């Protein structure tokens, strides 16, 4: 029989062990995994979170943003679907950070200090790219306070077909590059678009040229390089041109940008080619896509039945500042629901590509659905207009969009056997 004193002693010892949380052993692994990739020189984070000193001097702030789940930024509902690139701290990790701060941010023993995480300079990848492509000329961002939407053509000059294993966009002017979209042109007929504004009437001639891929990759702050799963890749044909569409935020000073795209080629055989599926405003079933001032409309999109079974690699929803919620799913011929993504609190400034833990099987004949709500009222602090104005489709931030992009491969015969484990 254990005495009361013994019980108290055990309890005290256990509490002491719990309280001896320190940076080197307990907090550094959490920070280095979830924070440092973005919070280091040259990345989107406004300050570094690498060393003990970096984190200790902002410890109360770190505690606050993790307890409120403001950081790390992640908006997909984990009760609906999980992803390989999920940036979610466990409650245990959040509590550990809180206890560390409350204990006075002890550093721990030097012999337990972790090594500094290794990253490629000016990259989120850990390997060297096979090709680095930079805009042919610096673009002059005007200082007149207007948004700019510009197109740039960047020839690859590839001498043979290759398969893309990963792609990374690196903004040169992080302050004013708001987001970018990369497309593929195999005709070489769009090279004259370089530097052209989307408001230029001559742009319509280039719109007539079919693109090989109208959404190869999209970048917004916080979106990581895109890496295709093993034995899959995106075909880049010989002499393909990259068409880069960049949204530049308003600037009160004249400045420049000359952004870069890094390409990583597959060194292993590719079994299946990655393809792109898009639902856009034309697929909305309750037309027109019109947001009256003061209202909170909801819109629905649906695809035609899939002509073949597919395995989905990742999904990317897109709206602007009036977006509030987004949900996408597929309904199989048997009536089963395949959850794709659900966002309960849309944030235009943190848009992500959501990569599935395992490719998601969707059988032939299934229909893909998406639904989104918008808030065009004066109660929406993100509304660009006060008082609110009628809003319709457009690429400008002050207009709205509703897109849903999936990257997928044709399903293998055995995929149905293990469908959506």
Structural class: alpha+beta
Proportion of residues in helical segments? 10-25%
Give the overall average pLDDT. Answer: 90
Sheet-strand content, in percent, reads: 25-35%
Residue windows where pLDDT falls under 50 for at least 5 positions: 1-18
Helix and strand pattern: HHHHHEEEEEEHEEEEEEEEEEEEEEEEE
The largest pleated sheet is described as: 6 strands, mixed
Overall shape: it is globular
Rounded to an integer, what's the Rg over CA atoms? 24 Å
Given the structure, what is the number of helices?
6
What's the total number of strands?
23
Ends apart, CA distance between termini: 48 Å
Characterization of this structure:
The protein has helices at 4-19, 23-34, 52-56, 59-67, 91-102, 203-207; strands at residues 131-134, 139-141, 148-155, 162-170, 177-185, 196-197, 213-219, 226-227, 232-236, 241-248, 255-257, 260-265, 272-273, 275-279, 290-291, 298-302, 310-318, 323-331, 337-343, 354-362, 367-374, 391-392, 403-410. The longest helix has 16 residues, at 4-19. The protein is globular. Helices cover 14% and strands 31% of the residues. α2 packs across α5 and α4 (59-67) runs antiparallel to α5 (91-102). Strands 1, 4, 8, 9, 12 and 13 form a six-stranded mixed sheet that branches. A five-stranded antiparallel sheet has the order 6-3-10-5-7, with no helix packed on it. The protein has a four-stranded antiparallel sheet with strand order 14-23-17-20, with no helix packed on it. With 421 residues, the chain is an alpha+beta fold. It has six helices and 23 strands. It starts with a helix and ends in an 11-residue tail after the last strand.
């Amino acid at each position: 029989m254990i005495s009361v004193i013994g019980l108290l002693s055990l309890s005290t010892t256990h509490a002491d062990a719990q309280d001896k949380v320190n940076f080197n052993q307990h907090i550094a692994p959490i920070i280095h995994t979830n924070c440092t990739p973005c919070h280091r020189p040259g990345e989107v984070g406004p300050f570094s979170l690498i060393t003990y000193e970096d984190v200790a001097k902002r410890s109360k702030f770190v505690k606050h943003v993790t307890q409120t789940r403001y950081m790390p930024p992640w908006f997909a509902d984990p009760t609906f679907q999980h992803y390989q690139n999920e940036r979610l701290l466990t409650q245990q990790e959040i509590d550990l950070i809180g206890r560390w701060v409350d204990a006075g941010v002890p550093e721990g023993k030097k012999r337990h200090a972790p090594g500094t995480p290794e990253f490629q300079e000016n990259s989120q990848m850990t390997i060297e790219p096979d090709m680095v492509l930079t805009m042919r000329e610096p673009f002059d961002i005007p200082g007149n306070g207007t948004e700019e939407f510009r197109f740039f053509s960047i020839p690859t000059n590839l001498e043979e077909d290759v398969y893309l294993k990963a792609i990374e966009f690196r903004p040169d002017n992080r302050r004013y590059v708001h987001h970018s979209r990369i497309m593929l042109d195999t005709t070489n007929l769009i090279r004259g678009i370089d530097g052209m504004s989307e408001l230029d009437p001559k742009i319509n001639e280039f719109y007539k040229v079919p693109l090989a891929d109208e959404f190869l990759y999209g970048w917004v702050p916080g979106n990581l390089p895109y890496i295709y799963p093993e034995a899959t890749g995106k075909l880049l044909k010989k002499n393909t041109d990259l068409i880069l569409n960049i949204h530049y935020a308003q600037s009160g000073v004249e400045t420049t940008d000359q952004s870069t795209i890094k390409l990583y080629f597959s060194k292993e055989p590719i079994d299946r080619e990655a393809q792109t599926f898009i639902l856009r405003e034309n697929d909305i079933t309750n037309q027109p896509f019109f947001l009256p001032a003061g209202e909170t409309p909801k819109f629905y999109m649906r695809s035609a039945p899939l002509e073949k079974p597919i395995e989905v690699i990742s999904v990317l929803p897109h709206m602007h500042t009036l977006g509030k919620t987004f949900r996408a799913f597929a309904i199989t011929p048997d009536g089963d629901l395949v959850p794709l993504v659900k966002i309960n609190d849309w944030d235009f400034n943190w848009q992500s590509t959501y990569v599935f833990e395992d490719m998601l099987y969707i059988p032939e004949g299934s229909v893909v659905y998406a639904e989104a709500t918008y808030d065009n009222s004066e109660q929406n602090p993100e509304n660009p207009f006060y008082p609110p104005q009628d809003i319709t489709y457009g690429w400008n931030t002050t207009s709205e969009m509703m897109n849903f992009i999936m990257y997928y491969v044709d399903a293998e015969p055995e995929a149905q056997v293990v469908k959506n484990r």
